[in-house]
Amino acid sequence: MALGGMFRNAAAIYLHLVGPFRGKKSGASLARCLHQTLAMTKRLQARRLDGIDHNPWVEFVKLASEADVVNLGQGFPDFPPPDFAVEAFQHAVSGDFMLNQYTKAFGYPPLTKILASFFGKLLGQDIDPLKNVLVTVGAYGALFTAFQALVDEGDEVIIIEPFFDCYEPMTLMAGGRPVFVSLKPSPNQDGELDSSSSWQLDPTELASKFTSRTKALILNTPNNPLGKVFSRAELELVASLCQQHDVVCITDEVYQWLVYDGCQHVSIATLPGMWERTLTIGSAGKTFSATGWKVGWVLGPDSLLKHLRTMHQNSIFHCPTQAQAAVAQSFEREQLHFGQPSSYFVQLPQAIQRCRDHMIQSLKSVGLRPVIPQGSYFLITDISEFKSKMPNLPGAADEPYDRRFVKWMIKNKGLMAIPVSIFCSVPHQELFDHYIRFCFMKDESTLRAMDKKLQKWKDELRP
Asked: Domain residue spans in the chain?
């Protein structure tokens, strides 16, 4: 009876599946029916992906690709790395054939050695290349490794906004809770351009964000998108609160060489008592204008880095050897020239400051009000005047104005920027929806193409 029942059940299932196709010729229809019946119904995505699946970058890059647009939105140089870096990469590819193979999991030894030597002097620490350096897949990989290694379910992470937009989703993916505190501009003299230096943290507000659940604070100096370089006094405030509340400081310093107008970059790890609780993140892509190489690093005490190494060895294991070898050779060259006129770290910011100044003057010509950045690839510009004159741009009713403005600008003016509201928490977007971000880390030909677009715009504004 049991066997007969089993056959009857199998026959019933067969009739249920093929019944609709009896007498039909299409085998493909039967295959589709079987696929639909057997398709998975369980939830597929992990809950840590909830709410972070939409990426505005994809939307704006797609819009820009569909028109004749000068791309001033994405943060990458459109000019080559320095000759010595390119030659180092070519040598790594064509020289020692063993560079095609695995290297040490936590970093190619010549690279970890030169990073330890180079940054040890800058940070005032005796850095052990085996214990205090971890090489990662770009600074992005360094950030992700740090969040996954240190942030636990329910931990709070203080994020200073506007912020590089991966900080919030990386916190959420680790199970943490982002806690936001905003930089706010100080009033300036009428007619004068604002400066990123005038954007300040309120000390009382910042202190109020620390609780017993605070695990980490993420600092970005020079800041993306604002271009602010935090002063020593501001860093001392952050350091004091981190020590008072026993909090880790994750400091993203990828633009440390790109500072302007005589401004000085200060690493928070150099302040008293901060090396022991700070992870300092850097990027070869930003350092040598080679963002596609994807070589980054984390420097810090072994008590923190040992947890990042655990995460690293159980995820990517190690980074491409040849790119690491090229970065090592480039740093060795820079160490010999450090502080001299021949140093790339001296020459690059001088050249890029001229690009920054060019863009500032050009944007002013059409009524935009740039905020003069102290560092980084970027400046933000105030579009309040346009918000007053053109308040009803197309777009969803709840869509921040800066996003609608950028879409309008891409379509009608042939210029791409990035809305600053994407660098902010949702509750605070209205504080920043009258700013857009431009990248001035561009070749002279790109800036000339920008000028042509802006001149046409300027002509249209004339009565």
From this structure: 2-38, 54-80+343-461, 83-337
Q: Are 156 and 221 in contact (CB under 8 A)?
A: no
Which CATH code for domain 54-80+343-461? 3.90.1150.10
| Inter-residue contact 410 to 62 (CB < 8 Å) | no
Q: Is 117 helix (H, G, I), strand (E, B) or coil?
A: helix
Best CA proximity match to 298, nearest among 315, 283, 286, 285: 283
| Count of residues in the chain | 463
Axis-axis angle for helices 109-123, 321-337 (nearest 10): 40
Could you identify the residue written with the tokens 């400051």? 353
Rounded to whole angstroms, how far apart are CA atoms 257 and 163? 19
Of residues 382, 388, 366, 354, the one with CA closest to residue 438: 382
CATH of domain 83-337: 3.40.640.10
Strands (E), 128-223: 133-137, 156-161, 177-182, 184-185, 199-200, 214-220
Q: CA-CA distance, 234 to 224, in Å (whole number)? A: 17
Contact 384, 403 (CB under 8 A): no
pLDDT digits (tens, 9 = 90+) for 366-384: 989 999 999 999 999 999 9
Phi-psi region of 289 (alpha: psi -120 to 50; beta: other; left: phi over 0): left
DSSP state of 212: T
Concatenated DSSP letters of 234-246 = HHHHHHHHHHHTT
Cβ distance 209 to 189 under 8 Å?
Answer: no
Give the whole-angstrom CA distance, residue 99 versus residue 78: 28
pLDDT in tens, 95-123: 999 999 999 999 999 999 999 999 999 99
The model's pTM is 0.90
